[in-house]
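Note to self: keep these together.
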Amino acid sequence: MKAQTSKEIVRYNIEKFVTEEYWIGAGFTLLSWISSFVMSVGVFLSFTLTIVLVDLYTGRLAAKHRGEAVQSHKYRNTVRKYILYMLGILISELFVRTFSLPIPLTYMVAGVIALTEIKSIFENIETVTGVRLWSYIGEKLTRLILRR
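Structure:
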């Protein structure tokens, strides 16, 4: 077997680096890492999408009740809102994994998002029906906690 010079070794490595198979392998590796990362927070993303869509529906009912016309910029705002929520959840999970945080940051971020959307849904329901769900639930929880 012939000993290779360092120049030949470098040339061989460069040739391997620029081949199509290398980039296909690197692409699939990156894609599998991204998909496993997103799948780990898939429940949060799915739940967030669900409550954003419910908020969109109840918001549309409330607008119809107020006599407002359907406006496309409101739909764009909903898409922007979901994208920002999704980024917030993904970034919080990235922080947890990168810095090995002992706190459930992803759960906390998803909880804040859920409470915000649920409050908005309740406000929309109040506009349509006149029932103040947020106050009603708050009163019931207060009674339950204080009654022990």
